[in-house]
């Protein structure tokens, strides 16, 4: 049904062309014209309803125009032999039709929005058309002697109405960049009507008001394609325009405007301008066109300058807050650094702050709330520090720069933190409001050296900001040279680590996890080690953090998993460990965010022929607290695979019972900070006791790490901790040493027991 409706305009077009052909051939011309007229009225009246075109007001006006046009044509042919003014009743109806038609075009134009440049161009075309029609048609028709006044008025009115129509059609064409088929059909209808009126205007120069029937052909064709426009599916697009980005004097536009501009000169040559009225008419018309051209040119220059200013502002300012961006800030700081210092002790101070908690606002209330928060923070900083330069250099990063003394800089730092920490009101997704409190980590740097540059200051302030964030957030840190050295060292470590990971230069050491009742290893933890050829030993606390920050952790973690599983398979094959022995490996949150992680791990285990139950993956508490739905799904897939999951460093973070119940974990590791105090701290002992009781209730395995003394071991045994690891049984060692040490011990223990 929808397909038939969309093609109805083609049926109408075919019917109209058939009737027009019959009319031209003289076959029942009255019936053919009546069919086209009635069909056009029905099309304009019902077509917009067929495609649910909104608004329908202009189409109602066009329907009324069609009724008057058709009635005028029929009456004009019927009353052609009658004397004036009876013979002009049909023309009066046609004039009324023009009125409704012009009103419909104005309604479309108001709906689209009147463009100033399109109006100027339309007026130029209109004046050119008005001069041409007035001097070529209206004046000759008005000077024909012996005609009734009403005939003269109507003969002169048609060209003027066509001129107004030309103005409106030109404005419509110059206002939209996309011209759908319905628009093209309507435009074709207007051109045909203009041609038809032009024909009658030409014969009107000689005093004739009627012509041969074939002169009505343009009107019949106009009604045919006009009705097709109303039935075309794209008629809906006529309710809105696609604005032109720039109202340029393009070639098509110049082809329309050019003849209008040339009209006064051509008419002067053609008509001779031998009377005062003619000279004044051509002079005023030409002057009006020149004036409009000058206004149009001035407007184009003004628009170009405004666009240039807008472009420069967009290139140097943040679009959300209107504050200077990084590019503009660099220029402003360079200018400030080049100025002479007004007083001794005053330097350029830069405050680089990153909002703490901004991501939580975005996640909780949506990005519009986050944008509102950013705008409010920028406004607060600007009001609190009117003498300073405030810029936005990142998503939630701001920079404040001011030349001042050190006491003033510290006062500014406190003022900045107070601005950020005051509660802010954000609009929630449901339209309500919420009070939010955020903080900021801020780095501060002072420039007192003439060699300082803006990029250097921003780099140092950024470094200090990250130091403040690492120290606990919601604080500020003043930059010193040691931070730059630390950053340089970190960069060097990252470069070396990338090469080490790519070339597999790292190694894995294994620390036994002891069953307390037998003092035999129940498993081992795989620990990554790095012996740099130049720097020597680099601790895991250093390079693991670098790997996390630089996205190397996924490649490093995958390699550790493959190697540790391969090593476990080798020990099982060589009889170093029994079938119950398991391997414990740390995995990062980034690895658990990989949707294919469980699938790849399963393939690794199958290739090595190691049961999934013999692998324990250690996760941090932050994975349970901050993990996404994807992380949760990966954990479930790992448990379905058979892999065990243990929470590392349990008790140091968000050790809530709900997290353990909600996530598929199988064990916990008591952090060494609680084990250290066993035997001397009653508080640590109670914490361990509580962890053991909770784990027993949830059927979780418990491992205590960091056991170094016999006293700690005895307390753990008394508290019911079944598994432990630590230096009491030895440090992590290479695979060969581990195999030699623990294979002998297993054999010895077994021999003692057998006796």
From TrEMBL:
Q: Which organism is it from?
A: Dactylosporangium maewongense
Report the transmembrane regions from the record.
Answer: 34-50, 62-80, 92-110, 122-143, 149-170, 182-203, 215-233, 254-271
Can you say what this protein is called? Diguanylate cyclase/phosphodiesterase
**Where in this chain does the record put each EAL domain?**
490-746
Superkingdom as given in the UniProt entry: Bacteria
Q: Which NCBIfam families match?
A: GGDEF (TIGR00254)
Q: Tell me if Hydrolase is a UniProt keyword of this record.
A: no
For this UniProt record, give its keywords in alphabetical order, as a comma-separated list: Membrane, Transmembrane, Transmembrane helix
**Membrane recorded as keyword:** yes
What are the residue boundaries of the GGDEF domain, all occurrences included? 346-481
The protein's matches in Pfam families, at most eight in alphabetical order, are given as: EAL (PF00563), GGDEF (PF00990)
